[in-house]
Amino acid sequence: MKYSIVRRGPKPNLTGFNPRALAAAAGSPVNDPWARNEAWRYTGPFSRASRLRNNFPGLGIATVAFIVYCGYEHFFLKNDHESRNLEGHA
What we know:
The mean pLDDT is 81. It is elongated and about 105 Å long. By secondary structure, the protein is an all-alpha fold. The protein has a domain at 34-81. The chain has helices spanning 19-26, 35-38, 48-55, 59-76. Pfam families: NDUF_B12 (PF08122). One of its GO terms (cellular component) is mitochondrial inner membrane.
């Protein structure tokens, strides 16, 4: 029994439909039919900056309050830790 290499050609197209030819003929769409429905995601309260700002609504006020408290504590409250007698420590 002798084995031989059989070279196969491309498979015949039984339906006659060529998806590559369809894609080339269609080209890119002139306008996106879903553009109007998707526009709300990127404008108004749903824009990227607005979403970031609204995720942390009290962050600005809390930051200012924390800085004011740290300044008050630093300048007006007495620090007893430095005034203790530390003779026994090196």
